[in-house]
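A protein record pairs a chain with a discrete description of its three-dimensional fold. The following entry can be read in just this way:
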Amino acid sequence: MKTLSHTTFLGGFTALLVLAWGANLRYGAGLPAGDTLWVIRAETLNLSGLLAVGLMSLIMVLATRPAWLEKPLGGMDRIYRTHKWAGILAGIAVLVHWAADEAGGPIRNLIGRSGKVAREHGPELYESLHHLGKDVGEWALYPLLGLILLTLLRWFPFKPWRLLHRAMPALYLMGAFHGLLLAPLAWWQQPLGWLMALLIAAGSWGAVLSLLGRIGRHRQYRGEILQVEEPAPGLTTLTCRLESRWPGHRAGQFVFLTLHAREGSHPFTIASAPGKTARSPSPSRPWGTTPATWPPGSGPARPCAWRAPTAASISREKSPRCGLPAASGSPPSWPGSKPWARLPTPR
């Protein structure tokens, strides 16, 4: 099966949203009544809001590591790349949405309010929540843009970024609430509104899974770290014995290894042949910190738990991919610590 690049995938997804918006104008509600500048502002708000909600929903779905996207995109590493660029595009859409909203003042000063597009009014409950939805969107705007900016700054330390990134699902839910209440009412009776509702439902599902820490919970395996080696400067190899129900692996796959719950999971390449013992080499220099101090040697087996994510798609790759990010932070002190590791379920 031919894989799609993240550019092609995101371009097609964005084009679908734009075409849906255009079809709604052509065959659905049509352009609203009003002066040209006010109409342009209103439709810019609608389109940028649709793109922002759609792309953020895609981000939340990709964060669940969906197995069904592994083949089309060519691996979980490429899903992560798509996740990153979807975030950048969402940030651009949010900026355009904000700019269109702020353009109301200059347009009013230029041509007055007489030709402004009238806002649709709905049931009493809708009206009571409308202003709340607008405020919630504004509350989420600046933290969301700040997180996207920090993601683009490579020098920003990984540990604080990881903690801040945990707020993204909550910010998404705030943005989705904003979109539900401020999208044109006529949309919800048309295919465009149904598409938007489907995207919000999928994104909310991913956001709730993330907030509850449920991503990958159903693929967990326990094992022991038997040995820590440093075969070359800047390279650390862990030898791990896995529990009997481990379904196996192939050399070249990567695993999500968590040495400490507070550190989170990071990718390690599996260097061993299939079996119940896995050898995982990774550069020892962590993200955004000083090089980790790894205690080499064999010694007694160290208990650990292997928590497999939902389909780490590198498991579908025939050869290892280079350039994966290094593990972050120092592993816990031995003995007495209980490190964690995450491994994919090969298929």
